[in-house]
Write a structure and sequence with these properties.
- By secondary structure, this protein is an alpha/beta fold.
- It has two domains: 2-123 and 292-308, Rossmann fold (3-Layer(aba) Sandwich), CATH 3.40.50; 126-289, 3-Layer(aba) Sandwich (Rossmann fold).
- It is built from twelve helices and ten strands.
- The chain has helices at residues 2-12, 39-50, 67-79, 81-91, 100-110, 126-131, 153-163, 178-188, 205-213, 228-235, 264-276, 293-308; strands spanning 31-35, 54-58, 94-97, 117-119, 141-144, 167-170, 194-197, 216-219, 240-243, 257-259.
- Helix 7 (153-163) runs parallel beside helix 8 and helix 7 crosses helix 11.
- The longest helix has 16 residues, at 293-308.
């Protein structure tokens, strides 16, 4: 989604961009822009550099929260996937990350020069910016995204049941997470105040309506980089509830209510705090302008121009 959003944003601003076709023998391009440092990009980047092309990589990096995470990363950096990732980042002429914390990870963990790192946040669809702040809201809490253990919908549902707050869940069960989905369904099946909608188009008016009318936007997820759903809700002026994890402490989510994702009572207490004083947990919209497609698109075009100067 973000690859396509960026592709469309820079194209609308006049950039001559095409999607990579590995079967096309025409090498008449100046810059290869790759998303991520998965093994699938390794040879594309290698041969682009061999052909004298400039390389831009947009990357989402994992936060290393404990000693076990750091140990696994350092072993992988010596022997496995992270070793190849570091090589690709070293080959890149410019690296784009979504926030300052991820830039620090790139610098300190991969030993990449800060001079070739840029921060450009995720792009949020213009429909959220154009909608403006809703003058009315209903009582429900909203959570969107794939239903899976990482997103933590079950504990949120239990907290909402305890707090007697209606909940709307929007998202399909992630592949491999059927057992978690069934457990969630068993918990909510007799709860008339909980609605589970198994997927909506990301730019649909129906989805926008659910965002616009919610009372609280929640995501007590165990792991994220820069969750777009929370950016979307913040743009609409909704109070945010998030897990007390590194991803929730970036500038785009300042003032959000942070809770312990393992503790249902902590999530419940967070919901209660927002109900009592919602304005205390609303993000300053001005900083979110960076996520508007034309602004993020311009930042990418500036990188392309710099590399070709």
């Amino acid at each position: 989604m973000q690859m396509l959003a960026t592709f469309n944003a820079v194209k609308e601003l006049g950039a001559d961009v095409i999607k990579l076709n590995v079967w096309d023998t025409n090498a008449d391009f100046d810059i290869l822009h790759c998303w991520g440092v998965g093994l699938g990009n390794y040879e594309n980047i290698y041969w682009a550099k061999k052909a004298g092309k400039k390389v831009v990589i947009t990357i989402l990096l994992e936060y290393l929260e404990n000693l076990q995470d750091k140990l696994k990363f350092n072993i992988s950096l010596l022997l496995h996937r992270q070793k190849l990732a570091k090589q690709m980042l070293e080959w890149a002429d410019e690296i784009v990350v979504v926030n300052k914390d991820q830039a620090s990870i790139c610098i300190h963990n991969y030993k990449i020069s800060s001079g070739k790192i840029s921060v450009i946040p995720h792009i949020v669809s213009d429909i959220f910016f154009d909608a403006g702040k809703s003058t009315t809201s209903k009582d429900y809490v909203l959570i969107t995204g794939n239903v899976c253990e990482r997103k933590n919908q079950i504990r949120l549902a239990l907290a909402c049941i305890q707090e007697k707050l209606p909940l709307v869940i929007i998202g399909k069960i992630l592949d491999g997470q059927q057992e978690y989905g069934e457990k969630l369904n068993n918990i909510i099946k007799d709860q008339s105040d909980i609605l589970w909608i198994k997927g909506l188009d990301n730019t649909s008016n129906e989805l926008l309506s659910y965002f616009s009318n919610c009372r609280i936007m929640a995501l007590p997820s165990f792991s994220e980089q820069q969750p777009i759903s929370m950016l979307e809700a913040a743009i609409l002026g909704k109070p945010l509830l998030m897990a007390n994890k590194p991803y929730a402490k970036q500038e785009f989510y300042k003032k959000s209510c942070l809770v312990d994702p393992v503790n249902v009572t902590s999530i419940q207490n967070g919901l209660k705090k927002i109900v009592i004083n919602p304005s205390s947990f609303i993000v300053d919209k001005q900083i979110l302008e960076k996520c508007r497609s034309k602004n993020a698109g311009k930042d990418y075009i500036d990188i392309y121009k710099k590399l070709l100067a």
